[in-house]
């Protein structure tokens, strides 16, 4: 199971003079402790469904045609779309790229859990953060500028330089 949680808590109707009214569904996406919101029209869900059919067997999507736009019918559609998204997450080991794009989720590794380096279920929030720290810090390049007070010569560097530039020269 993925650490993606989806809910559609609300919807709103939009009216404008150019096209007839439509409904916008508010999708809340929670992944690895971070939440964001995406708003989508039913037509976008329908387009997603058509695209998903090319790569997976998606669940049934609520009917495209609604006889009337009363709140009870829209609430049923909201619930059906929420169940649709949740079922895709639960039934697929690997979430399709088009689905992740639809939810504005950055893509995580698409390897099955058995082949991946870590499991999303056991990964803590702390271990999911990238930490880049230098392994060694030089105030100057030790291979370009030698230290004046360095009494012990760098034998490896000297050996490589002699081997590359003076292969016929015998070591001391």
Structure description:
- By secondary structure, the protein is of the alpha+beta class.
- Helices cover 31% and strands 17% of the residues.
- The chain has a 3-stranded antiparallel beta sheet.
- β2 (22-31) and β3 form a beta hairpin.
- The radius of gyration is 29 Å and the shape is elongated.
> What level of helicity do the residues show?
25-40%
H and E string: EEEHHHHH
Number of strands: 3
- Largest sheet data: 3 strands, antiparallel
Number of helices: 5
Average pLDDT taken over every residue: 76
Low-confidence stretches: 110-125
How far is it from the N-terminal to the C-terminal residue, by CA? 65 Å
């Amino acid at each position: 199971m993925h650490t993606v949680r989806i809910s559609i808590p609300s919807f709103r109707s939009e009216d404008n003079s150019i096209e007839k009214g439509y409904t916008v569904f508010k999708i809340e996406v929670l992944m690895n402790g971070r939440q964001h919101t995406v708003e989508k029209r039913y037509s976008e869900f329908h387009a997603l469904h058509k695209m998903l059919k090319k790569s997976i067997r998606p669940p049934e999507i609520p009917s495209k045609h609604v006889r009337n736009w009363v709140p009870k019918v829209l609430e049923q559609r909201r619930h059906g779309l929420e169940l649709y998204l949740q079922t895709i997450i639960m039934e697929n080991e690997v979430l399709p790229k088009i689905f992740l794009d639809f939810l504005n989720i950055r893509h995580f590794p698409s390897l099955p859990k058995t082949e991946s380096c870590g499991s999303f279920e056991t990964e803590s929030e702390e271990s999911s953060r990238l930490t880049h720290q230098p392994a060694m810090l030089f105030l100057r390049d030790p291979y370009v500028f030698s230290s004046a007070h360095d009494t012990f010569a760098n034998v490896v560097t000297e050996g490589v330089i002699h081997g590359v530039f003076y292969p016929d020269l015998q070591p001391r």
